Amino acid sequence: MNKKLIITPYGGLGEIGMNCMLIETENSAILIDCGLMFSELDHFGVEFVIPNFSHLLTKKDKIRAIIATHGHEDHIGAISFALKAGIRAPIYASQFTTLMIRERLRDTGMHETVPLNVMAPGTSVELGDLKITVASVNHSIIDAFALFIDTPIGKIIHTGDFKIDASPHFGNMMDQNEFKKAGEEGVLLLMSDSTNVERDHEALQDDKIALRFEELFKKAEGLILVSMFSSNVGRMANIFALADKMGKKIALTGRSMEQNVRLAHERGVLSFDSDLFIPIEKISQYDRKKVIVMSTGCQGEPRSALNRIAHAEHAHVKLDQRDLVILSSSQIPGNEVSISKLINELFKCGADILYDTIEDVHTSGHATRPELKQMLEMVKPKYFIPIHGEYRHLVHHAQLAEECGVIPENICVVENGEVVELGPDSLQIVDQITELRVLVAGREGSEITKTLLKDRRRLGEMGVVFCLMTREKDSGKILSKPEIIARGLVSEAMEPWLLDEAAKVVQGQIAKYKQDLKMGVAHQDFAEEIRIELRRFLERNLGKKPTVIPLIMDI
Ligand SMILES: [Zn+2]
């Protein structure tokens, strides 16, 4: 029998973010991760980019589970949207990941709509003719999994996001023997994280960062502010332990920071005395030297706590020249400009600012080239698909796989929407799905369609002109002078001239209309005629065509 496996990546291949992939046999399917991406288009009201679920919905009866590899937003952030779209499959994930998913679902009122199944490392679940075994990996969040999937045609491995950290500050080093064992038994396909393939050096290990933090904390003369991803529980534990040791107090700012500390405590991974914490609004009552503020916003997010602190707009945290600010995070591609702006603003506060390019205060959660090589050598896959990376990362990872002995014809660089067919002796792209993404305005927010975005862009870039007048309903007589209102069009100085000239154009149209009215000539759409003439006038004088909205009220 000629069995095949179909693999469809909806996101995460050719970009960093929005990871989502369907793996299906003839009878069953599983969705691996369902993440979102933060939008660069925030100024048009677009907050998130999520996968377009319409293709996935055609398969919904086959989908046996949504399996989340770990709790980062680019892996779990769109689950609530998938549920809302009508994909109703039970969710499987590690303990900490399920807690994070539960919070997301609770935020959207969907936490009781779907079963959340906790999987312990090393356990398996059978879903139709697919058997999934989860294996712990190191990453910048606790409880991250790689997936070993037994399929009717052989074993495939999806690494999730991973690194091989010999001395993680938290938890154990990932068990490489499971990967080696699978490699010895035979792995048909490996799909592996490509994010850091361009980094050739060994990554800094967590314990080195912990030591560096201790040195920095000892030298600090004022308040210490640490900003990091709120999901990095390992780093949090490190800072809590230091604070305890040095007799300092912790104040948290940022909702997700507070939420994740609570979750990690609930999960039992963070233990602390509650008197370690002080409310952020009370920090002024403490000796500045005794306070560590932990905040979100390390990516320069405009509404974050850190951004407010940098702009001296935070109600409780004001920095001065004695203070030390540590950005303990990497820069997510696409966020460089906002992070750079943030760092500049922080420098203006006079404090000392340390970040990953000038000081060892962060290490990435993704495997660098030597670790990726190690993964390929352990698993020795017959076929290889690089995942989780921009296109250049995928290409570089494909080259690395070739160096590690995978036959070039057995390596496939796949982009989002390309449908892959895997057989025992074949790997090929067989189809292509388009329209892969949907823009949304926040967690509860509605879709921002192409037309809506186009309108917002046009309004933002060109402005808008209204032309108001009243007309007698029965006779068609114009009763008022036209009133022209413009927004976002020209400078204040130029506006009176423009409005006068525009009013003249409209008066001209009215005169013509009146004359035609006398002669009994009917105007099908007088408002449209005004719109066209005003647009012509504006294009002639401004070189652009703003949105023109004539409003004629028949009374
Ligand atoms: Zn991740």
Tell how many strands the DSSP assignment holds. 28
How many helices in DSSP terms?
15
Helix content: 25-40%
The value of Rg in angstroms is 29 Å
Mean pLDDT: 91
Structural class: alpha/beta
- Chemical compounds bound to the protein: zinc ion
Our estimate of the beta-strand percent is 15-25%
Low-confidence stretches: none
For the report, how would you describe the main beta sheet? 8 strands, mixed
Give the CA-CA distance, first to last residue: 76 Å
Strand order of the largest sheet: 9-8-7-4-3-1-22-23
Note the overall shape. globular
Give a structural overview.
With 555 residues, the chain is α/β, with parallel strands linked by helices. It is 32% helix and 25% strand. It has an eight-stranded mixed beta sheet with strand order 9-8-7-4-3-1-22-23. Strands 10-11-12-13-14-20 form a six-stranded mixed beta sheet. α4 packs across α8, α5 packs across α11 and α6 packs parallel to α7. The longest helix has 24 residues. It is globular, with a radius of gyration of 29 Å. The model has no long low-confidence stretch (mean pLDDT 91).
Q: Brief overview, please?
A:
With 555 residues, the protein is of the alpha/beta class. The protein is built from 15 helices and 28 strands. It binds zinc ion.
Features:
555 residues, 15 helices, 28 strands, single chain, eight-stranded mixed sheet, globular, binds zinc ion
